[in-house]
Amino acid sequence: QVQLVESGGGLVQAGGSLRLSCVASGRTFARYSMGWFRQAPGKEREFVALHRWNSGITYYAYYADSGKGRFTISRDNAKNTVYLQMNSLRPEDTAVYYCATGRTYYNGSYYLDPDYWGQGTQVTVSS
C-alpha cells in the first residue's frame, strides 16, 4: 500500500511563493512517476505538473499551461520526496493541491494517470 503525505500549503498574498512537499512510502520511489494536481472550489481536479521516471536513469518534467514559467517540480530520491515550487502566485491558483503517483500517458505531452493520491494541502492566494 502506497502512502503520500503533502505539506507546505498556506495563505499567501498575490505575487508570493510557496514550496509544497510530498513524502512517499510503500513503493520504490525512484522507479515511479510523481505529479501534482489541484482542485479549486466548484471546479474539477486538474493536472499541474509531472516528474516522469525514465528507466531509473533520467527524469523529465512537464507542466500544464497554467503553471509554466512559474512552477517547478523536483524530487529527492534519498528522502522519497517530491516538491512543487510555486512562484508569482495568483488568486486563481487558490485550490487544494494533491500529490499523486502512477503511470504516464501521452496526449500531445505527457500526463499522469494516478493510482494513489495524497490527502491534499490547501493553498490560498489573496489579492
Which short descriptors sum up this protein?
single chain; 127 residues; mainly beta; 7-stranded mixed β-sheet; 4-stranded antiparallel β-sheet; 11 strands; 0% helix; globular
Per-chain topology:
Layout: E1 3-7, E2 10-13, E3 18-25, E4 33-39, E5 46-54, E6 58-63, E7 71-76, E8 81-86, E9 95-106, E10 110-117, E11 121-126
Oligomer: single chain
Q: How many distinct beta strands? A: 11
- Give the CA-CA distance, first to last residue: 40 Å
| Helix-strand sequence | EEEEEEEEEEE
Number of helices: 0
CA radius of gyration is: 14 Å
User: How would the global form be characterised?
Assistant: globular
Q: Percent helix among the residues? A: under 10%
**What would you call the structural class?**
mainly beta
Described by strand count, sense and barrel closure, the largest sheet is: 7 strands, mixed
Low-confidence stretches: none
Average pLDDT: 91
Describe this structure in words.
This protein is mostly beta strands and 127 residues long. Helix content is 0%, strand content 61%. The protein contains no helices and eleven strands. The strands form two sheets. Strands 2, 4, 5, 6, 9, 10 and 11 form a seven-stranded mixed β-sheet that branches. A hairpin with a 3-residue loop joins strand 5 (46-54) and strand 6 (58-63). The model has no long low-confidence stretch (mean pLDDT 91).
Structure, briefly:
Helices cover 0% and strands 61% of the residues.
